[in-house]
């Protein structure tokens, strides 16, 4: 793709924002790869990527990720909960002590009542504040939760369904919004979306659906380390890679996610800095393993993994990704020692397909749901051609991101997925729960979790029980590695690459800490 003068002029109108009024302010204009601004009510939609936009800016979780380091993976750290512990006598019972002195943006106090109210809004369909949209986003991310109660003004207790040492990782996704503000706007989540109130480092000041969201610095933020260094940040929807890149080149924005791979050199020539880092996030295909699916034969799934030239995909994306040889990177303590080695071996792939009853004249036919447009579709089309050489006849069903996510949460047996036999939802692999349990345990099928394929391996299920029962991090790593090795040997997915989450920054951005995470902390950006 070449960015001509015409393409620069074709940048969406939403990017052409006035700057004169901001002369005395530090304002970051951020081009994001979204067709719409993610949900602003507390639990963002549009995937995990949205948490850095309207999640961890406006709101806070009880337990947070450490995102101010870039040379190692971050750890879990206190958020709105200052400490948490499991009861030694009953290891399904967790106690969370809450942070005192925190205020929501509307001035109301954060306390145990607010946390319980927020748990109710996503778990209790009969309560007044229950919100279907928020529940759909976060409930599958907290599959271990059984019940909750207030145990003090600044303390809550949560019971898990079973002993679950990984439960704290689940709470990283749970964000807390203001009960008082919901009352003030007439108990209407649509109105709340336009005037939200959280405890985060930014406040939403303007929302234009499908166009932009403007956030202002929260001077009274409770954590001095995360008080923003800029006055405002403006998220601008620019779903096409070329439009975002053109906007940065023309000066319409100051930073973008996912620059177009083939204009990286031009961006650098214009003074842009390309920021990347190791990221626990994987691009893969998740095939259905339910009866009648063409993917139930492990030889077919292994053949698909052997048919993909991952180095060619890395080259196609200008080195902005790294090859995937499983759910996690080979350097991860959770990789283990699988006997099936992912590599580019088309002859081996064709041999397996022949054994499974397929040939050039009789290819395996499959339809896969993917996200429409952009680089993602370009990659899918390249892989489609590679698979064709190994007796696969793949058809894609491009859909909007949120529709793709809804289908993912629905599982392979859902009516909405009856016309596809695999899906292409990239996902986070940031902790043992996400790297192993969430996708490979048979108790994580819909509607509980996102074992989309309905994969079931009794050995894996037993290892998951062991994993959830141990509170020793070293032992957790060892068990997770064994689970991962079995999943690779069963070729549960067709893995392609790991992201490095490239961002292009204009010279105006003086400091940006890119954590080794799918989450990023925009409160740390400096101009």
Automatic annotation (TrEMBL):
Location in the cell: Periplasm
Residues in Solute-binding protein family domain copies: 75-444
Pfam families: SBP_bac_5
Entry annotated with the keyword Signal: yes
GO biological process: peptide transport
Leader peptide range in chain numbering: 1-23
Keywords: Signal
Membrane-spanning residues: none
InterPro entries for the chain: Peptide/Ni-bd, SBP_5, SBP_5_dom
GO molecular function: peptide transmembrane transporter activity
Main location, first listed in the record: periplasm
GO cellular component: ATP-binding cassette (ABC) transporter complex; outer membrane-bounded periplasmic space
Entry similarity comment: Belongs to the bacterial solute-binding protein 5 family.
Protein name (database record): ABC transporter substrate-binding protein
